[in-house]
């Protein structure tokens, strides 16, 4: 287990050899530093994402005391109120009800209407990069694109968008392993500020509805059911956090992988029809969300090992996406890979509702960069963020020649 160390910079730089060791050791192993059971194989991760004996929460069935857990500190309440009313951290029947209502507003047509906006904005961002002769691909393209798209979809005015990325980054810090007190304090502050902003915006849209998702969430109903105000706020925050964190990191992780595999980048530049497969392969090759957690609601057995009720399971997406039992030569970046059942968007009832939008954004930015920067090069090696769960870079310096 020595190789698996989610706080070691060497591991964070390249966790995939350690995952291979985990898979060789067995189907489940206990990891004491985080008090979690690690599951590294694709078949098990895929099956457990669909297993109703596990849950993103346990509070629909048990109190903290009944489950053998300690309630979060009272000072963290704003974060947990925000987080615990979003469908990502709910189980049926609440999850079923909220996802059904959100799906009525967040329809394929809603996403399809955004395609011209996404394509146009991606082109504008890349044009600016070209004019500057290069820059930071994360700051100049990868980050502003999904934030603007989600804000546009929600109907957040351009003048109000500056705090969105910092709020999201601070909130998402709580999803890392064993977050510090300072991380928690920043997440609480961001949760309070983001909630207050959205509460005011929702009140405004109640009086003056528009053609945006917040207005749609206010209006949507099903069999007399409506979203509560807190559920609307939590849904909006979830869409921003999940929608842009994954896309930002998939973009920079992907381009860094391409720069390290020049023959694959050359093939992509020669044949832009590879873009859809490239998007899927890059999300598999360096997965933006490395770990997804589940609580054990009812005792389960994995390969002869009993995992008790009350335990926490860490489903290792990054390892599953490199499992040689599923992927031929998983360590190889192959943009022509046809059979690619990666689980970067999760699976089961918590499959990412924004996956179609993420694919549109990733495709748009990749096409714009291929078409407008045929000689894009890496200016200097990037630094990894000191995070494990949400895998990304501090920046990606590039030159346009």
What report would you give on this structure?
A hairpin with a 4-residue loop joins strand 1 and strand 2 (36-39). Helix 10 packs across helix 11 (181-207). The chain contains 17 helices and ten strands. The protein has helices at 9-13, 16-25, 42-49, 77-84, 94-105, 108-113, 115-131, 137-142, 144-154, 164-172, 181-207, 213-219, 229-260, 262-270, 275-285, 317-320, 355-372, and strands at residues 29-31, 36-39, 54-55, 134-136, 291-296, 300-302, 305-307, 312-316, 376-378, 397-400. Strands 1-2-8-5-3 form a five-stranded mixed sheet, sandwiched between helices. It has a three-stranded antiparallel sheet with strand order 4-10-9. It has a two-stranded antiparallel sheet with strand order 6-7. The mean pLDDT is 95. It has 401 residues and is an alpha+beta fold. It has one domain: Cytochrome p450.
List the helices and strands and how they pair.
Blueprint: H1 9-13, H2 16-25, E1 29-31, E2 36-39, H3 42-49, E3 54-55, H4 77-84, H5 94-105, H6 108-113, H7 115-131, E4 134-136, H8 137-142, H9 144-154, H10 164-172, H11 181-207, H12 213-219, H13 229-260, H14 262-270, H15 275-285, E5 291-296, E6 300-302, E7 305-307, E8 312-316, H16 317-320, H17 355-372, E9 376-378, E10 397-400
Parallel strand pairs: 2-8
Antiparallel strand pairs: 1-2, 3-5, 4-10, 5-8, 6-7, 9-10
Helix pairs in contact: 4-11, 4-13, 7-9, 7-17, 9-13, 10-11, 10-13, 11-13, 13-15, 13-17
